[in-house]
């Protein structure tokens, strides 16, 4: 009976993590570029309660007798399916159609990646020119790892991104497109679920994700498209998350009930001496 106490306790801890994961998904249902997470579980060690043989001659049993010792969290898998595109009509908002990621440089100079394209055209404190940055002020990089800046006399309202090849440019006074000979950087990963999620909807490369692959230099990748004036919404399905939340709550209740029943059985066993 002591096994049932520990097994049920492990189930309650696991389901609590499951509820935490679902709650985080629901909290970010309106976060641009957010990708939902799913808690995955695995069994703990099994205890053999009866040997594989039942006779002195060592004859084997067809089926062993083992009891599991509960469950634990194995991983939280991130779902990188495409979110819906939401029109914003803002010249600094960009959405990705495909499997690519934007590349940015954080405040420490490290490279990070994001699917959230709610960028800004801000004035650079170094030279006064307008550059493309995230909401936190991190510069968005082009295909060569350089910052994307407009000419000194051009404002962000004139900036344009070509949807087909990601070329950055601007419209002159007559409406003609002037290319800056830069393409907004798009990168893919062999295993995007292996990326390490950090704050501000950013991801860092890990050994599990593999190195970032430049879409413009790797011909084996399907090229993504950058859509200006749109943002990618989260891929969280509220209906599915609510169902998963109910299932997790019921599992938590059943594990707590198992602890209660085991406690009652132990109490009855202690009363046998009276």
Describe this structure in words.
- There is one protein chain.
- By secondary structure, the chain is of the alpha+beta class.
- The protein has two domains: 2-79 and 236-273, no CATH class; 85-232, no CATH class.
- Helix content is 22%, strand content 30%.
- It contains two helices and 19 strands.
- The protein has a four-stranded antiparallel beta sheet with strand order 8-7-14-17, with no helix packed on it.
- Strand 9 and strand 10 (130-133) form a beta hairpin.
- Helix 1 runs antiparallel to helix 2.
- The radius of gyration is 27 Å and the shape is elongated.
- The relative contact order is 0.20.
- The mean pLDDT is 88.
What is the number of E strands?
A: 19
User: What order do the SSEs take from the amino end to the carboxyl end, as H and E?
Assistant: HEEEEEEEEEEEEEEEEEEEH
Strand content: 25-35%
Radius of gyration: 27 Å
Low-confidence stretches: none
User: Between the first and last Cα atoms, what is the distance in angstroms?
Assistant: 21 Å
Characterize the overall form. Answer: elongated
Estimate the helix proportion, in percent: 10-25%
- Count of DSSP-assigned helices: 2
Largest sheet: 4 strands, antiparallel
Q: Order the strands across the largest sheet as they lie in space.
A: 8-7-14-17
